[in-house]
Specification:
This protein has about 200 residues and is of the alpha+beta class. It has a single domain, classed as Hotdog Thioesterase (Thiol Ester Dehydrase, Chain A, Roll). It contains three helices and nine strands. The strands form two sheets. Strands 3-4-5-7-8-9-6 form a seven-stranded antiparallel beta sheet. It starts with 20 loop residues before the first helix and ends with a strand. The model has no long low-confidence stretch (mean pLDDT about 90). Bound molecules: Palmitoyl-CoA. Palmitoyl-CoA binds next to helix 3.
């Protein structure tokens, strides 16, 4: 997809000083399997593609009919709108595997996302699942809206920890796209959340 963003925008999916070692390790794991450019400028396609992430998709910013013109220009993507120092809320990066129709998110949950003491709020978990699956559905099918998100919370996600989120295509039916999603510990041994999404 062509990126509807100004090249001057900050790409929030690049590593920053708030990322813990697990977040950085997983980032390197997937990033090292992305497209590489050799010294003579030849590009070698990778298995994964890192998806840049901005706080506003400017080209499509036509909504907000109930906002004043002044406030409209200040609208921001929910998951990228915290001005506080990095690491306070949603830190994440997405990688897409076009061939296998899989999209992976690495997510570090900051202290402002607390639900049950010491653990991540269920609404924040739903948000990051919607982000990963919604982006994946967009890559697979073009512009979409989430019609249905069904979430089973299996084990709490510790605040400050890093989890692995994987979205995979179940099927497409006409203009509908059905995805499944799993949130696990980074070594895959613990299942935190399972979800299905219809877009
Ligand atoms: C390179 C990088 C690129 C990345 C680029 C992206 C960058 C940035 C990333 C941000 C990533 C965040 C992603 C957030 C994504 C949201 O959070 S979207 C916000 C939440 N969702 C909404 O507000 C949607 C509100 N609902 C609607 O607008 C409408 O109900 C819908 C879903 C569009 C459906 O409307 P419609 O097409 O007019 O509905 P209708 O014709 O009645 O039904 C069509 C079909 O869908 C089915 N359907 C309708 N509603 C439902 C439902 N609720 N459940 C199941 N099936 C349904 C119907 O049964 C029907 O099926 P068939 O009979 O055709 O088999």
């Amino acid at each position: 997809l062509p990126l509807p963003f100004s090249s001057k925008s900050r790409d929030f999916s690049l590593p920053n000083s708030s990322w813990n070692s697990e977040m950085k390790r997983l980032y390197e794991h997937y990033n090292s399997q992305c497209e590489v450019e050799s010294e003579d400028g030849e590009k070698q396609k990778g298995l994964w593609r890192r998806l840049p992430s901005y706080n506003r998709s400017l080209k499509y910013a036509t909504g907000g009919v109930y906002l004043s013109k002044l406030i409209q220009s200040k609208a921001r993507l929910f998951t990228r709108n915290i001005k506080e120092q990095g690491g306070a809320a949603f830190e994440y990066v997405l990688f897409n595997n076009e061939e296998e129709q899989r999209c992976v998110g690495i997510f570090q949950a900051g202290h402002l996302l607390e639900g049950p003491p010491g653990n991540v709020h269920g609404g924040a978990i739903a948000t990051i699942i919607d982000t990963v699956t919604g982006t994946h559905a967009t890559l697979l099918s073009g512009t979409v809206m989430t019609a249905n998100l069904n979430i089973n919370y299996r084990s709490p996600i510790p605040l400050g920890g890093t989890v692995h989120i994987e979205s995979s295509l179940d099927r497409k039916e006409g203009r509908k796209t059905f995805l499944s999603c799993r949130v696990t510990s980074t070594d895959g041994s613990k299942l935190h959340t399972e979800a299905t999404g219809d877009f």
